[in-house]
Amino acid sequence: xxxxxxxxxxxxxxxxxxxxxxxxxxxxxxxxxxxxxxxxxxxxxxxxxxxxxxxxxxxxxxxxxxxxxxxxxxxxxxxxxxxxxxxxxxxxxxxxxxxxxxxxxxxxxxxxxxxxxxxxxxxxxxxxxxxxxxxxxxxxxxxxxxxxxxxxxxxxxxxxxxxxxxxxxxxxxxxxxxxxxxxxxxxxxxxxxxxxxxxxxxxxxxxxxxxxxxxxxxxxxxxxxxxxxxxxxxxxxxxxxxxxxxxxxxxxxxxxxxxxxxxxxxxxxxxxxxxxxxxxxxxxxxxxxxxxxxxxxxxxxxxxxxxxxxxxxxxxxxxxxxxxxxxxxxxxxxxxxxxxxxxxxxxxxxxxxxxxxxxxxxxxxxxxxxxxxxxxxxxxxxxxxxxxxxxxxxxxxxxxxxxxxxxxxxxxxxxxxxxxxxxxxxxxxxxxxxxx
Length: 436
Description:
By secondary structure, the protein is of the alpha/beta class. It has one domain: Metal-dependent hydrolases (TIM Barrel, Alpha-Beta Barrel). The protein contains twelve helices and 16 strands. It is globular, with a radius of gyration of 21 Å. The two termini are 35 Å apart.
């Protein structure tokens, strides 16, 4: 890294210049030895509005993003009511977001059983791509799909350039494992029971199917929240063969491991589940090797009562980890322990997700012509996460109490400062990004 000056004009980066190239007429913001990163892009966020704003909403989710150096979110099509599975529901989401977004945002459309004819109209309406589940999503209105449904969807998406994002678990291994645990009278307050109920094989079988279909249709499929390292050989082989497939893992899979999760601590519940320490280290290795392309949060909050902490049963609690705004320090802490250079952070959390969502050259880079989105980052600040540091709606998160390194000092969106040292700007100025 070296000193530089980023010149901003009309909300875009005009140039990236050397420190000696300043003009006396320039308005200068000097960040000293702090690091300027491109604004982060999080392509896996459940905002939940309209319909479940009591879980989360555009106002609180986007403020949390701004506090964490995230300047662009892409909202998942489920957990809101109605689910974003046709143009009418997309327009309902757009109406709900009006005047509430502190950062830029965009929408994924949904692929569910029976809506193949709605996909082309959603393409025309400007979604960034589509999301599907190969297992029950937890939301009855967002139906899971099988191979026949996937083929119908891929026929519709072939040639559009839009990705199909997939929750890569199939139901068979999960159903079999859960039934066996129930027959054995397993203790559902024990984390090991929940972990056993979502075996690696569910991910491996799903990813085997998805890589085969991506190759056959030559249409990009994106694996969301990869948790199982056992699927990595399949992904290595697919990428070596030129299959159009990309992969994300999530902050929680790179930070937590199963052995450290207390029984009954259902704030840690997510699907796929948090796996072993060795599995976590294999995911870090896959990032370093380029097998895993990017990191997202899968911020999936709910009202605290839905975590059912009083009974601590993993089978009855809502699955989803709240983390929006914390990803940068959490990942940088782990990168520092491994002596990974910070430029990888920008690639994994800004550049690659921007490319997935169709924002390449506009978002996630510090280059002339891009939006002037920045995260001003102190890489040496050490602090402990408290509930007061959480800006999303409900303050229940397994990261409370975590000791982390690195802190976002300021966030800029299209040349405007929207967050600085714990304080937010005058009001929301985020925009919807619509794919043309």
